Structures are given as C-alpha cells and as structure tokens.
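Inverse folding, one chain.
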C-alpha cells in the first residue's frame, strides 16, 4: 500500500491522473454507490462529473488538486469538473464500504435550470466545486446521514433528497476551499483543450464501441500519433485497452438489462468474434458472460424483494 508521500500533488503530476469512466443509471440524475477500500477505482483520478465523497468511519489522507490533508470519520468533500482527487487509508488491508460516492453531471443539470430552478444551487456552488471544498462541523455529519439515506432509498424520493444534499452543502456554515487558485488557473490552461477532445473521443467510443483509433482521432481533429499520446496521458491507458474496457462495459449493461443472446451482445458491444469476447470479458470481470448475467439477475431479484 503506498504511503501519503507517494501520491502526486503538483500541477505537472496531474497528467498522470486516470480518467474515471462514469455512466449514470438510466432514468437517474445521479449515481450513488458504496465502495470498499482498496478498490481498483480508488486511484489518483478525475472526471467531468462532480463528486460528493463521504467517509463515515475511516481516516487517512485526502488529495484534491495540490491539496494534501488528513481526513477523519465523518469526512465530506465536494469536487468539481476534472479536478484530480483521491483518498487513501495507509496500511488498511480491507475496509468494507469505506466510501459513499455521489456523482452527477452538474453542467447538464445547470442547463435545465429554466424548467427546474431547484438546480440553480449548482450554479452558486460552481466556483467552490472548481477548487474542491470540505464541509466540516455538525453539518457534515447531518449531510452524511442524508447521503446514507439516499443510498438506501435512492429509488424512493431520491431526487428530492439529492437536491436537499446540494442545498445543505451550500448553506453549511463551516466550509474550506482545498486546491489553490494558482493550481486551478494553471491546470485549466494546460488541460482544458485536451480534456475536451479526449472527453469527446470517449463519448464517441461509448456510442460506437467498435470505432478504430484513427477514426476517433479524425473526428476530434487530431493526428493519430498525437491523439494516442494525449489519450494515454489523460486516461492512464492506451486506446486499445480503454476501447476494450468500454466494449466490456457495454456488454455488462446489455447482459444485466436485456434478454439479448450472448452472441448478439458480443457483436453489439463491438467485438468481432465470440472467442475474443469471452476471453476479454472474463479478463475484465473475472466471470464468463453467462455467469455475469446469472449474478446480475440474482442481484435484481434481491433488490426487488428487499424490505
């Protein structure tokens, strides 16, 4: 397990951050989940979506932009668009459900303020989220309880509770900014154009999983060699690995949510033969497609019957 000093915290180091791929559930304005620690996605990462991160019972070190600081039980942070972040608990072998993570596309929600003015709170929070904020004092624990409640009852009045959480963050009396203004200014100058192009490339890959690298590079206006370098810097992996991950993600969704045959899913997800599909799917998930579908159905039944 790395110790605190092993993690990047300078502007130049942020280009080693990995872009986390986030897919919001169908019909939902947000994604909420509880993660164990360590976790494959608990790395120095960034993403266009905002994130509210609550750690009820653990301690460790928080990294947000060029900020480094300790966290204790009841820790609550909000991070904005493409702001690199990570939370580590040095030496912890395994912590069940250490993190509650609430992620959402704030820009999309701000765009519907005219018809849903409740989301105007995001516009007011935007300059704070850009640098990341920690909410402290009794308000952090109260908001944390609401996040726990949202996780338990996300399909029963969840949107109202989500908006309550946002408003409570805005009105919390004890807040502090994390990343420095210098970091945000310099980092945005260096990364904004590259982020836009790579984000566009990832959207293309998600909608067309079988797209080749030269096709995606052409659509975002880069030469393949330049695209390959930028993609590697901003996602932490090469195009073929990321593309395979997107195709497996698409297959997982289809296996869990549709009755399509596994052969049809193979080609719909962008694989060109069943043998490669089965091999890569098992490499990414540890399960065969058939076993994954069976496990997904068991989960769905447990959710339906949950009291």
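Residues assigned per position:
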């Amino acid at each position: 397990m790395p110790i605190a000093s092993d993690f990047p915290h300078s502007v130049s180091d942020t280009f080693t951050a990995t872009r986390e791929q986030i897919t919001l559930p169908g019909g939902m304005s947000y994604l909420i989940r509880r993660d164990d620690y360590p976790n494959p996605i608990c790395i120095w990462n960034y993403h266009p979506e905002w994130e509210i991160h609550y750690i009820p019972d653990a301690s460790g070190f928080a990294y947000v932009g060029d900020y480094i600081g300790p966290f204790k039980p009841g820790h609550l942070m909000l991070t904005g668009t493409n702001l690199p972040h990570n939370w580590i608990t040095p030496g912890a072998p395994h912590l069940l459900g250490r993190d509650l993570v609430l992620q959402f596309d704030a820009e999309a929600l701000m765009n519907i303020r005219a018809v849903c003015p409740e989301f105007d709170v995001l516009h007011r929070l935007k300059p704070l989220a850009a640098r990341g904020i920690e909410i402290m004092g009794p308000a952090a624990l109260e908001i944390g309880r609401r996040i726990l409640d949202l996780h338990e009852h996300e399909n029963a009045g969840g949107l109202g509770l989500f908006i309550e959480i946002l408003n409570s963050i805005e009105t919390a009396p004890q807040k502090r900014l994390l990343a420095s203004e210098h970091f945000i200014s310099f980092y945005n100058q260096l990364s904004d154009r590259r982020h836009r192009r790579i984000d566009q490339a990832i959207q293309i890959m998600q909608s067309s999983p079988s797209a080749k690298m030269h096709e995606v590079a052409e659509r975002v206006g880069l030469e393949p060699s330049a695209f390959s370098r930028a993609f590697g810097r901003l996602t932490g992996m090469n195009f073929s690995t990321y593309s395979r991950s997107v195709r497996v993600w698409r297959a997982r969704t289809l296996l869990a949510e549709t009755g399509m045959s596994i052969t049809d899913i193979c080609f719909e997800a962008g694989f060109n033969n069943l043998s490669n599909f089965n091999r890569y799917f098992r490499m990414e998930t540890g399960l065969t497609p058939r076993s994954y579908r069976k496990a997904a159905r068991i989960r769905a039944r447990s959710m339906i019957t949950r009291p």
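Residues 1-15, 303-307 have pLDDT under 50 and may be disordered. The first helix runs from residue 106 to 110.
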